[in-house]
Amino acid sequence: MDKIKIIGGRPLTGQIRISGAKNAALPLMCASLLTNEPLILKNLPRLADVFTLGSVLSHLGVKTTYQGETVGNHQATFHAKGPILPEAPYDLVRKMRASVLVLGPLVARLGYAKVSLPGGCAIGTRPVDIHLKGLEALGAEITLEDGYVIAQAKNGLKGTKFSFPSITVTGTENILMAAVLAQGTTRLLNCAVEPEVTDLAHCLQAMGAKIEGIGTSVLTITGVSSLQGTIYSVLPDRIETGTYAMAAGITGGEIDLIGTDLDLIPTASQTLEMMGMSFKKTAQGFIAKGPSGRLQAAEIVTDPYPGFATDLQAQIMALACVAEGVSFITETIFENRFMHVPELARMGADITIKGNTAVIKGIQHLKGAPVMATDLRASVSLVLAALASSEETMVNRVYHLDRGYEELENKLSACGAIIERVREGSTHDISETAHTFKAAG
Ligand code: UD1
């Protein structure tokens, strides 16, 4: 299994191009199931999760072709011309929870779907009960059999009024995709308003769907009998954006983030400003600048958009570990999303968990240590912590990072980070590289 070795303690300066958003790309790819014409997605990130879902779609009969090798220039065509299989098996779905996003489109198009209950990051139980309630409201008959969800709508889905009992991002996306081909009008209340939901709604509109209220918590969808193909560019990744902004913050550096928008991280940028960072918008994105002295402690509560994203919680905790004062980070979206805490503690962090709040007493310097990546965002928080430590850190199990961060090592090393992937069996020692850097001044 690959590892990442980092020797930090250097301010990062340079330019990073932000990739297309993983969490926008995945539902957009599933939207290809709604039409027999090709859907071309530009700015598609080259990530393990994208290729995993690509395999699920290929299995279902979607012709998938990828083009382009560089960040921002990668695109793919998804052509669900048919015949389409209605069944997504466990072996494919278990790798990634977002595969459940094929359920809505399949039942909308075929009137029948059999999809394995999903796997994915181990951050809490993460049920899909609300997805199923939404489909039932649209007239699908749902049964659970041997770990599979079977959804049937022999006479097609019917427009309805459905209020999400709590906010769910992929739940909103699944039901929205089901409703666009349902007969009649569907009114969805208490929808997630994450930018990735809005991105999906815009793409569906470009495919001919009739949707009102985009960007709000109430979506009104007038069903159409068919959709067409389109060319659509995936939204920039706001979590990657926030992560690299924090890399500038934790190292006291200055990073020019391009291909993104500061407005995608409203609460995170405000919080980081309070911690001592500054931001300047540019024509192509924005510049994130770390403080000249130490970061300051903060109080953070995760919330649905536009609140502080749970997907940035682990990363900001790395910053809190070296900030001056005591920080409080409360996680309200997922239980069991503090798995990075024991790993950060291995690096010397002083963190106590009280219920769903982490209390972090900032220290001057983190130590290097071998640490274990446990989920996607936890892994990158360890990378950020390692960038702040002048000692060597080895992050194990980096396959989690490959699920969500395109070219992480290249992007960071372009800004001066000493970071290297150690492939299994490789013996190269980057402390020599670090030594050369130090000798060079
Ligand atoms: C999506 C994101 C994920 C992010 C999360 C919250 C994708 C592919 N993933 O995940 O990166 O961390 O939003 O912003 O977009 N819940 C239920 N029943 C359901 C569905 C959800 O109880 O049927 C609960 C979940 O357990 C969780 C909360 O609702 O506690 C929010 O989850 P949800 O918004 O659905 O997260 P995902 O869409 O899975």
How is this structure best described in words?
It is built from 15 helices and 24 strands. The chain starts with a strand and ends with a helix. The chain is globular and about 65 Å long. The protein folds into two domains: 3-19 and 236-428, Alpha-beta prism (UDP-n-acetylglucosamine1-carboxyvinyl-transferase, Chain), CATH 3.65.10; 22-233, Alpha-beta prism (UDP-n-acetylglucosamine1-carboxyvinyl-transferase, Chain), CATH 3.65.10. Helix 5 (129-137) runs parallel beside helix 6, helix 8 (238-251) runs parallel beside helix 10 and helix 8 runs parallel beside helix 12. The chain is α/β, with parallel strands linked by helices. Strand 8 and strand 9 form a beta hairpin. The chain has a four-stranded mixed beta sheet, with helices on both faces. Strands 2-15-17-16 form a four-stranded mixed beta sheet, covered by helices on one side. It has helices at 22-31, 48-60, 90-93, 103-110, 129-137, 169-179, 195-206, 238-251, 266-274, 313-321, 340-346, 376-388, 399-404, 408-413, 430-439; strands spanning 3-7, 13-17, 38-42, 63-67, 75-79, 87-88, 112-116, 141-145, 148-152, 161-163, 185-189, 210-212, 219-222, 230-233, 254-258, 278-281, 285-289, 299-301, 326-330, 350-354, 357-361, 370-372, 392-396, 418-422.
